[in-house]
Design brief:
This protein is mainly alpha-helical and 56 residues long. It contains two helices and no strands. The radius of gyration is 14 Å and the shape is elongated. The two termini are 19 Å apart.
Length: 56
Protein backbone atom coordinates (compact mmCIF):
# COMPACT_ATOMS: atom_id res chain seq x y z
CA UNK A 1 0.00 0.00 0.00
CA UNK A 2 2.89 2.34 0.65
CA UNK A 3 4.04 1.76 -2.91
CA UNK A 4 0.60 2.86 -4.10
CA UNK A 5 0.86 6.06 -2.08
CA UNK A 6 4.33 6.71 -3.49
CA UNK A 7 3.00 6.17 -6.99
CA UNK A 8 0.19 8.64 -6.34
CA UNK A 9 2.72 11.27 -5.28
CA UNK A 10 4.80 10.51 -8.37
CA UNK A 11 1.71 10.98 -10.52
CA UNK A 12 1.09 14.32 -8.82
CA UNK A 13 4.57 15.45 -9.88
CA UNK A 14 4.00 14.26 -13.45
CA UNK A 15 0.63 16.01 -13.54
CA UNK A 16 2.22 19.26 -12.38
CA UNK A 17 4.90 18.99 -15.04
CA UNK A 18 2.29 18.33 -17.73
CA UNK A 19 0.50 21.51 -16.69
CA UNK A 20 3.66 23.60 -16.47
CA UNK A 21 4.77 22.47 -19.95
CA UNK A 22 1.35 23.28 -21.38
CA UNK A 23 0.14 19.76 -22.14
CA UNK A 24 -3.05 20.24 -20.09
CA UNK A 25 -5.15 23.32 -19.34
CA UNK A 26 -5.63 24.81 -15.87
CA UNK A 27 -9.19 23.47 -15.53
CA UNK A 28 -8.16 19.89 -16.27
CA UNK A 29 -5.14 20.21 -14.02
CA UNK A 30 -7.24 21.36 -11.07
CA UNK A 31 -9.86 18.65 -11.61
CA UNK A 32 -7.29 15.88 -11.86
CA UNK A 33 -5.24 17.20 -8.96
CA UNK A 34 -8.31 17.37 -6.72
CA UNK A 35 -9.17 13.76 -7.57
CA UNK A 36 -5.60 12.71 -6.96
CA UNK A 37 -5.47 14.43 -3.57
CA UNK A 38 -8.63 12.55 -2.55
CA UNK A 39 -7.04 9.26 -3.61
CA UNK A 40 -3.91 10.11 -1.62
CA UNK A 41 -6.04 10.83 1.46
CA UNK A 42 -7.90 7.53 1.07
CA UNK A 43 -4.66 5.58 0.69
CA UNK A 44 -3.13 7.31 3.70
CA UNK A 45 -6.21 6.51 5.77
CA UNK A 46 -6.19 2.89 4.65
CA UNK A 47 -2.50 2.54 5.53
CA UNK A 48 -3.07 4.06 8.97
CA UNK A 49 -6.10 1.82 9.59
CA UNK A 50 -4.12 -1.26 8.59
CA UNK A 51 -1.17 -0.28 10.78
CA UNK A 52 -3.48 0.39 13.74
CA UNK A 53 -5.15 -3.00 13.34
CA UNK A 54 -1.78 -4.75 13.14
CA UNK A 55 -0.94 -3.48 16.62
CA UNK A 56 -4.02 -5.07 18.21
Amino acid sequence: MKISLGSAYELETELTLAYEFGYICAENFEDMKNCLVEIQKMLYGLINKYNTNQGE
